[in-house]
Amino acid sequence: MASVSFQNVTKVFERRVTALSDLTLEVPDGQFTVLVGPSGCGKTTALRLVAGLEDPTRGEIRIASRTAEGVPPQQRDVAMVFQDGALYPHMDVYANLAFGLRMQKGDEGKIRHQVTAAARMLGVADLLDRKPTALSGGQRRRVALGRAVVREPGVFLFDEPLSNLDAQLQLTLRSELKALHERLGATVLHVTHDQAEAMALGQTICVLREGRLQQVGSPEAIYDRPANRYVAGFFGVPPMNFLVARVRSMNGSLALAVGDQLIEAPRHLAKAATRDAGQSIVVGLRPHDLSLESGANQTSNCLSGRLMRLERLGSHTDLCVKLPSGDVCTVIAAPRFEGAVDDEIRLRIDPERIHLFECDQAGRRIDGPGSTCTS
Fold first, then answer.
1. How far, in Å, CA of 305 to CA of 317, rounded?
2. At CA 282, angle to CA 276 and CA 285, rounded to 5?
3. What pLDDT does residue 105 have?
4. Is the pLDDT score of 106 beyond 60?
5. 342: left (phi > 0), else alpha (psi -120 to 50), else beta?
């Protein structure tokens, strides 16, 4: 296998559209690395640059520690699986799997052995005589993966291979992709817009926004210590709640005022910096870190509001609560939650589960970034 390195890579297209801006990233040999972000953030462009389908405007890409500049796609030792599979409709499955090997003018007996082995590994051995039009969506994706596997490349490039599939099939193929990586020990650079897919597959996750790298880290680091508000809001279902608060002094310590309601500030706020009274700050609260306080209990660190909407989802109920400040919070409640719209709801908050961010456009995490953060 092989490592992949982006060194200050920028890609600008003809109409002055900057798809990637100064991307520096190391993908270690044998690691499953996921590039995640919304459409248009530059993640597919990054794959195409590695594959040699595009050239960087500035910067350098290295594969297995060797520069890729001037190296044609067929000599880069990479295999790319496109979003739509890109199978040849006039060829049967066997011919699709064998195509790349035959282009290299390999021995037909060896080709047959490699194709058969890959087909068995991916569960399509009984489909070798079928045309792509006779395959289901999941079968076509497996064949597309098989076409990459048979080449035994140094790097696999996966461009949203699970998109546009039904939910159950996505889960099945996600597990198969993970098992395939473990079996091959392959270097994988995987692109997706689905944060759950990124969390499930990636050993390392790289979050992109408008062509710029926001954070690099393990799934746990990305989720537990998001580097900025963008990353915090992108990961998590339901997404993180953001409330604008002001820093207040209360009995010699710091508190956070959300409208007229006060909650205790987490210890790391005092450690991060000295905050002036009245300074604005953004409070981030994940829905599952909030809990419901019964009317009989009157503990501190609660926010009160009115229930605007509830969605019963079987395993749990999502509650949408509007605070007097005008902020709206989502909280996860029990599946048999007993309540109705317009009820008063009290949300109990653990101060040490609060995330804090700056109020400016960058929205950096106040107690320090995650693994890597750029703006």
1. 17
2. 130
3. 78
4. yes
5. left
Q: Which residue has the tokens 């909650």?
A: 263
Provide mean pLDDT across the span 314-338: 95
Give Cα separations from 19 to 40, 54, 209, 327 (angstroms): 7, 12, 10, 34
Answer yes or no: is pLDDT of 373 > 50: no
Residue 14's pLDDT is 84
**Contact predicate 27/7, CB 8 Å:** no
Cβ burial, residue 226 (10 Å; 0-12/13-18/19+): buried
CATH number at residue 211: 3.40.50.300
Please give the tally of structural domains in the chain. Answer: 2
Task: Read off the CATH number of the domain in which 253 is found.
Answer: 2.40.50.140
Q: Does residue 375 lie in a domain region? A: no
CA dihedral over 89, 92, 97, 103, signed as positive or negative: negative
Res 115 pLDDT > 50:
yes
Question: Is the residue at 373 inside a domain?
Answer: no
262 shares its domain with 132:
no
Give the global pTM. Answer: 0.89
The mean pLDDT value of the chain amounts to 90
